Amino acid sequence: MTKVIWITGATSGFGLAVTLKLLRETEHVICVSARSKDKSQWLSEQGAHSYRCDMSNYEQIQQTVKGITSDHGRIDVVCCNAGYGVYGPIEAVPHDAMVKQFEVNVFGVVDCIREVLPQMRARRSGRIVLTSSSAAYVSSAGMGYYASTKHSIKAIGTALRQEVKPFNIEVSMIEPGVVKTAFKDRAMENQYVDSSPKDYQQKMQQVKRFMLNSMEKAPTVERTRNQMIHAILDDKPRAIYKSTASSHILCNLSKWAPPKIYDTIINKGVEILSK
């Protein structure tokens, strides 16, 4: 059966990789939403049905859901992939940047879910795929705001999975560690390391080097992309997909290590990988 699949954040990273593979290898109806007019147009040329949408704008999310439903009759799957990272000390990240981080990474995701659920409940069928991160389990200096959004998605996805199971709606969470995507470029656009107070500079510059080095050495997107497609299409999707070795390691570290040992291991890892 042909599915109508809506992918947010489809112009880069995991969202783009999933979109292109589905377009090239399946007959499903692929609907994408993005802020960029040029990128939306390019995706349309590849065969996607594009809708302009800013994930921090609730009215645009509503209009996107109405548009897809009007054009294609329903939404069978929503893959909430839009998101980005804000980095810097808790004290130094500006208020507006902090709020925007939650608007896109958490509230925008929740708004998408809330808008598609009524029709999924009515059909007693549907699938929701949430792109989270190993940051749902761990946090470290300079990454508090980004990690807190992923902790939030983990909690929301877990509750949602239990709430909608009686309606035959599946919820899956994708939890990769660091993966080589264009996420690095936007991360550097939204970093408040260089502008942070002098007291933080030594540690934050170390964190910045760690991030850049980690992303350079990270695995490519294919394994995570394939697990996302499994969550979207398979008859028996898993609740959680840990798509990289680092996500398994960090999950176990957060689960079993006492706080002092956890801090020591994280700090040592950042120190080593920042060189």
Automatic annotation (TrEMBL):
<keyword id="KW-0560">Oxidoreductase</keyword>
<dbReference type="InterPro" id="IPR002347">
    <property type="entry name" value="SDR_fam"/>
</dbReference>
<dbReference type="InterPro" id="IPR036291">
    <property type="entry name" value="NAD(P)-bd_dom_sf"/>
</dbReference>
<dbReference type="Pfam" id="PF00106">
    <property type="entry name" value="adh_short"/>
</dbReference>
<comment type="similarity">
    <text>Belongs to the short-chain dehydrogenases/reductases (SDR) family.</text>
</comment>
<dbReference type="InterPro" id="IPR020904">
    <property type="entry name" value="Sc_DH/Rdtase_CS"/>
</dbReference>
<protein>
    <submittedName>
        <fullName>Short-subunit dehydrogenase</fullName>
    </submittedName>
</protein>
<dbReference type="GO" id="GO:0016491">
    <property type="term" value="F:oxidoreductase activity"/>
</dbReference>
<dbReference type="InterPro" id="IPR051911">
    <property type="entry name" value="SDR_oxidoreductase"/>
</dbReference>
